[in-house]
Design brief:
Elements (H helix, E strand, L loop, with lengths): L5 E2 L13 E4 L2 E4 L3 E2 L10 H13 L4 E3 L8 H9 L7 E6 L1 E3 L7 E3 L3 H15 L1 E3 L2 E5 L17 H13 L6 E4 L3 H7 L4 E5 L10 H10 L2 E2 L19 H10 L3 H12 L12 H9 L7 H8 L12
Parallel strand pairs: 1-9, 4-5, 5-6, 6-10, 10-11, 11-12, 12-13
Antiparallel strand pairs: 2-3, 7-8
Helix pairs in contact: 1-2, 3-4, 7-8
């Protein structure tokens, strides 16, 4: 992405899309995308990071999720180098946080309207774009992570005002929300929301009503931690006995079963699993072709969701 005068809003190339296509901010993308956060693990091997991104394109992925605060800008910088205009890839970014390498978590909130605008400008400069097709506003209302305090407690309407202004100015193409509550999403609907990113997996389904609202409104549901995480209250899907049993029967991995269940659970659900390993990348893509029979789906649907405190800070 060497030119600073390009946009990544292109007509879909028609290439094979892992998991099939679904609409995201007005264009079809692969339902199995790529979450770029873990690329920061390759900060010491830039060549490997570029090669991994090139492999995503070769595998048919045309939806990459990133943020300027991933790896202190390294991730966006390597995306700019690796992804070309002719690849027809939709790069989605995020604002609402900033790096905090000396803090208890590697991120700090950046929720004020002027910080959101600065975040968009930083993403534009780093990616070498004149417009980002979709930018997600990371709130601090729901899911794991820090909760807002002091001047970081900002009303959603004030944030949507600046995001809408950025859209009107042509700097972003569409607005998404991350770590948002059901009430927050309902309040935001008049602004035109294209995407919601919340923690969600087979074992973490507190936001089922929000997922159904998104489906009814034509909003993409793009869960983070689709296989769980190390956070308390976000158990790892691959450790669930029913998932392990299904994987054994289908001769696939438990992670692939977890991802395949998500793809079958709702048509508006898009995956952005992250990895820094080429083999894991291919396994994630292959999950888009895993078919779960009715008995397997019923067994997985019957697994009780887990609840717990997933707030830090």
């Amino acid at each position: 992405m060497a030119s600073s005068t390009r946009s990544l809003q292109h007509t879909a190339s028609g290439a094979r899309r892992p998991g099939g296509p679904w609409q995201l901010a007005g264009r079809p993308v692969s339902r199995v995308g790529f979450g770029a956060m873990q690329l920061e693990r390759l900060a010491g091997d830039r060549k490997a990071a570029v090669a991994l991104l090139r492999r995503t394109v070769e595998l048919g992925i045309d939806h990459i999720d990133t943020a300027q605060f991933y790896g202190h800008g390294f991730v966006n910088d390597v995306i700019r180098e690796a992804i070309r205009a002719e690849d027809d890839v939709m790069v989605v970014s995020k604002v609402g946080a900033a790096p905090d390498p000396d803090g208890p978590l590697p991120l700090r909130l950046a929720q004020r309207p002027e910080q959101l605008r600065a975040g968009v400008e930083d993403n534009l400069a780093a990616l070498g774009l004149e417009q980002i097709p979709l930018v997600n506003l990371r709130r601090a209302d729901n899911g794991p992570g820090l909760r807002a305090e002091g001047d970081q407690v900002v009303d959603l309407d004030d944030q949507l005002a600046v995001m809408t202004a950025l859209r009107d100015e042509g700097k972003i193409g569409a607005i998404g929300l991350s770590s948002v509550t059901l009430d927050g999403l309902r309040r935001a609907l008049p602004a035109g929301i294209a995407c919601v990113q919340n923690a969600y997996s087979l074992l973490t389904r507190d936001d089922e009503d929000m997922l159904r609202l998104c489906l009814a409104e034509g909003i993409a549901w793009v869960p983070y931690f689709p296989l769980g995480s190390a956070f308390d209250g976000l158990p790892k899907v691959s450790d669930e006995p029913a998932v392990i049993a299904a994987a054994r029967d289908l001769e696939v991995t438990p992670a692939q079963v977890g991802l395949a269940w998500l793809l079958g659970h709702a048509p508006n659900l898009l995956l952005i699993p992250g990895t820094a390993d080429p083999d894991h990348l291919e396994a994630n893509v292959d999950a888009g072709a895993v078919t779960l029979d009715e008995a397997t789906v019923a067994a997985l649907d019957a697994v009780p969701p887990r609840r717990g405190d997933i707030t830090l800070g």
